[in-house]
Amino acid sequence: MRQLEQRILEDGRVLPGEVLKVDGFLNHQVDPDLMFAIGSEFAYLFRGEGITKILTVESSGIAPAVMTGLQLHVPVVFARKHKSVTLIDDLFTAEVYSYTKKTSNQISIAKKFLSADDKVLIIDDFLANGQAVQGLFEICDQAKAEIAGAGMVIEKVFQTGHQMIKDRGVRLESLAQITSFEGNQVHFASETTD
Ligand code: 5GP
């Protein structure tokens, strides 16, 4: 998605540890027009899949997920992050290791918001090693919900998340695919295909 790549080039900052900081439009301050365009793109890509629900993880996945839900006319559920293991019977839970925070969190979704009747689209801000998506897969499995696809705003294709999703046989759509941060610059997969 050209508009998103352009914004990453203008606003993104490459940090040590192969982390891209995009707090100017996605991770802290949010650009609603860009988020709307991102939601439109995901809604277009997944329009024929019969999606009944969108799942994401708080907090940075919520903006693109809501904009997608707005245009697919389906509810959006965000998994909450818990530090302690206070297991309650009415929750689906999974353990997720955070790429940026280097800590483990339990994520959970109330059972009343996900069921075997659902066809789920997973949306998140970044795909790195796929831990967050893996956690949402586990929660869908517990609910016996069908997974229709995964939509990632920014994917770092040189990390392992891409393969994990493909191995599971789930459709993956990423709006910006970063191939490397060589020379402290952002390089996109589209550079080689244009
Ligand atoms: P994963 O679970 O795929 O390893 O990492 C995905 C999560 O880690 C995302 O939800 C995002 O919050 C965070 N993350 C991973 N890589 C980056 C990055 O390069 N920049 C930012 N801002 N967040 C990242």
TrEMBL record:
Q: Which SUPFAM superfamilies match?
A: PRTase-like
- Name the reaction it catalyses: XMP + diphosphate = xanthine + 5-phospho-alpha-D-ribose 1-diphosphate
> Which Enzyme Commission numbers does its entry carry?
2.4.2.22
Where in the cell? Cytoplasm
Which residues bind xanthine per the record? 20, 27, 156
Q: Where are the transmembrane segments?
A: none
> What Gene3D superfamilies would the database entry show?
3.40.50.2020
Look up the record and name the pathway of this protein.
Purine metabolism; XMP biosynthesis via salvage pathway; XMP from xanthine: step 1/1
User: Where does it mainly reside?
Assistant: cytoplasm
Q: Which InterPro entries match?
A: PRTase-like, PRTase_dom, Pur/Pyrimidine_PRTase, Xanthine_PRibTrfase
Specify whether NADP is a keyword of the entry: no
UniProtKB keywords: Cytoplasm, Glycosyltransferase, Purine salvage, Transferase
Where in this chain does the entry annotate a coiled-coil region? none
Q: Which GO terms describe its molecular function?
A: xanthine phosphoribosyltransferase activity
**Which residues does the record give as 5-phospho-alpha-D-ribose 1-diphosphate binding sites?**
128-132
Q: How does it assemble?
A: Homodimer.
Q: Which HAMAP family match?
A: XPRTase (MF_01184)
**Which family, according to the similarity comment?**
Belongs to the purine/pyrimidine phosphoribosyltransferase family. Xpt subfamily.
Function, as annotated, reads: Converts the preformed base xanthine, a product of nucleic acid breakdown, to xanthosine 5'-monophosphate (XMP), so it can be reused for RNA or DNA synthesis.
Q: What PANTHER family does the entry give?
A: HYPOXANTHINE/GUANINE PHOSPHORIBOSYLTRANSFERASE (PTHR43864), XANTHINE PHOSPHORIBOSYLTRANSFERASE (PTHR43864:SF1)
Q: What name goes with this protein?
A: Xanthine phosphoribosyltransferase
This chain's source organism reads Lactiplantibacillus nangangensis
Q: Which gene encodes it?
A: xpt
